[in-house]
Amino acid sequence: MADASGLVGLTIAEMRDGLEKREFSGVDLAQAHIEAAEAARPLNAYITETARTALDRAFFSDTRRAQGPVGPMSGIPIAVKDLFCTRDVLTTAGSHILDGFTPTYESTVTTNLAHAGAVMIGKTNLDEFAMGSSNMTSHYGPVENPWRRSGDNRPLVPGGSSGGSAALVAARAVPGAIGTDTGGSIRQPASFCGVVGMKPTYGRCSRWGIVAFASSLDQAGPFARTVRDCAILLGAMAGHDPKDSTSVDIAVPDYEAALSGDIKGLRVGIPAEYRVEGMADEIETLWGNGIAWLNEAGAETVEISLPHTKYALPTYYIVAPAEASSNLARYDGVKYGLRVTGDDLADQYGKTRAAGFGAEVKRRVMIGTYVLSAGYYDAYYLRAQRIRTLIARDFHRAFEKVDVILTPTTPSPAFAMGEKMDDPVAMYLNDVFTVPSSLAGLPAISVPAGLSGDGLPLGLHLIAKAFDEETLFRAADVLEQAAGFDAQPAFVAGRP
Amino acid sequence: MMADLIKGETGDWEVVIGLEVHAQVVSNAKLFSGAATTFGAEPNAQVSLVDAAMPGMLPVINRVCVEQAVRTGLALGAKINLVSVFDRKNYFYPDLPQGYQISQFSQPIVGVGKIVVDMEDGESRTVGITRLHLEQDAGKSLHDRHPTKTYVDLNRSGIALMEIVSEPDLRSAEEAGAYVRKLRSILRYIGTCDGNMEQGSLRCDANVSVRRPGAELGTRCEIKNLNSVRFLVRAITYEAARQVQLIEDGGAVALETRLFDSDKGETRTMRSKEESHDYRYFPDPDLLPLELDADWVRGIKRGLPELPDAKKARFLAEYGLSAYDAGVLVAEAERADFFEGVAEGRDAKVAANWVIGELLGQLNKAGVDLADSPVGADRLGGLIDLISDGTLSGRLAKDVFQEMFDTGRAAAAIVEEKGLKQVSDSGEIEAHVDAILAANADKVAEYRAGKDKLLGFFVGQVMKVTQGKANPKVVNEVLRDKLSAG
Q1: Whole-model pTM?
Q2: What's the topology of domain B426-485?
Q3: Which residues of A touch B277 (CB under 8 A)?
Q4: Which residues sit opposite A445 in a β-bridge?
């Protein structure tokens, strides 16, 4: 069905202005995006659609607006990765083991968004427990990327793990969505789907109520089709939370106000180590374009070195599984979710977890258990933590000379479903550019900046100093303007 | 200090013991959640989302529990670590909802300290404390509610425990018992653990090994979950004897975890070393390292009350008490306070005798706590005053005390009502003495012939006719006068 209302496809900023001018109501927006969700079903991007509560919330938002000033996201439809616990709404983490799990509580980030007036249209599909770069590991089936290679109708992956959120924003089924990023789970799918995806500084958003994957890395962040919309979204998500000991108690600035368009004198670091072997020419070219655009806008590019970059991926694949192996121990069939009864306790544990977890989750639980085991801890986990410190120090030193760092987001565009599936290491390489900043806890953003030779979106990646999201957004905004990315995917919700 | 050696068939053996005490922190809320900690609540009535390990829940450290651990460390004269780290100890069990216990492994909040243990014979031994760390308690599995299923009560899940680890400095079961009693006394003084072993707020694991005196340490066994001092002593005694016999029979002690069966009075294997868990400790990424402010720690130190050792030393110096009496009195802060209330302005030794000999004995017999004693410090003091001013003899005083204990009335009122006032008037006593001497002329003659012991007989006769009210001192004086005057 076509979008008769013309509301689908607007940006968050446009919706906000339209609502303010009473050009349409929150209920109009909700209705249009509930229909868009239905239209987008071929993508398999929602696990749960929450049409009824969306209409209730939209109506409430309209009522509030009639009475006085409302929150910055009031009446704006969003999609929420199904890793955020939502009160009275099924929360799956993309896993069979959380069958039927309906929390009695609401995550801090989605609570903040609700207080800002945002209207949740549904819960989005993801790699199981956020472990994956393809969205192929979800118990609820893969998400389809709305893009297609030119002249090739094979379905492509949207990236992962926040693939559902990225695909829905790309397909215009929502103007914005939230995801989580542990090693690239926002930025990589944003790049694959041609949208903006941002990971804030670790500690900027509360992790309370987000199903944990790797606690020292997990961070919530926004997806949208513009940098400005991401800035608006993050402003409504972020903030100190006493319920999360790793959440940082500093003020949340007005990110939108940081988008001055002026980056004169901004020092942009270009790390030599990111020129990885075998990198496609088109990625190299894209990166060069990014450098040129920023230079033209008055920035100054500086060659920098991040010497421990090559260790980032192996380090990540020790630290993240180690934490995951422990975080996922609570899914034991005793308290909630799936239970497969057995002959005795050990048998019940074994059967429940064998049936409840998919192959990738099992792989990572095994790796994590191994690297924490007596006799291996020092060689793997402890060493990985030391390297993590060195990686963070690389960035710290680089940021004495530069304000932001520019790299490609991914080494390749989206791949077809079924590709790379038999080689976990090839799959893990998707995150080679995003993982180092995750290990260092730094804010980073992927901005769509061009198309590959076969017509797929490619993203450029900016990294900033801890808690300097303002500079990150300002630079990303300039990059976005210069790139002028206006290509649209093959599939757009509601378009015939 | 001679160790208590075990006489084996092949010679002497020395038992080496180290204890791990789990002390529940006195706090209204759990270590990482706001749920309540009251004992005896309905199953699963005190469980927060964090305690039940719901997805996405995060721990937040409870400041009160940290303060209690620091206070305990300071009371043990231990090093307070201004930076400590919480680790996850990973294992699967239904009463451990997270699948890991948050504990402290490599960097505990409290380091090396010591406890002076007082033995029955008045000797003291210094026992090293290795460390104290904070950790979560697990829930409780209830296996007896259903024929095939186990129920889980998570009320205890997440409650703060202090694990206090001793050096292997203890050399007998009795010493181990005295160590636990002393530790419990200190914890109660400072209000960081109620020390209630029946309710499980103080539990003990004992590491026991035997060796030839002075030789290398033997292989140890760990006896888990001893929940009374009596069981601790019995379990160690049994275990040491078992190990000696095993070795003397040509066997070897296996490193293992054992359980004490209090019905049979024996220990048995719970799990062998091969079956022991690999806990995969690693720093909990949900919690930042715990950093303490040195001034804050100093403030807690300044706020510590007088501790048992200092109090005992003061009682010895200030009141001239025996080490035994001082030890008994300082074992509990309330007891020491009670004593000082009685002793104030009075003879301290007399006060100590009355508190220990009479009051504590009666309370113990009646099963009443000192806090609920029918005789308060003021009243006991009043009784002592009536002795020292000559109103009551020691013997009468004991009767009056019994009456006070039974009725809760004041000594003076009882003396008044029963006319128990001591007769010290020498004229009245002389009259009684004259009558008795006259009635026992034969005995008077024997006495005068040198049978001095008969003095007691005459005293007894006087006391009898005066119903015990005659002042024994005056009776003695009058009798000696009259008997020698003849």
Answers
A1: 0.91
A2: Arc Repressor Mutant, subunit A (1.10.10)
A3: none
A4: A198, A462
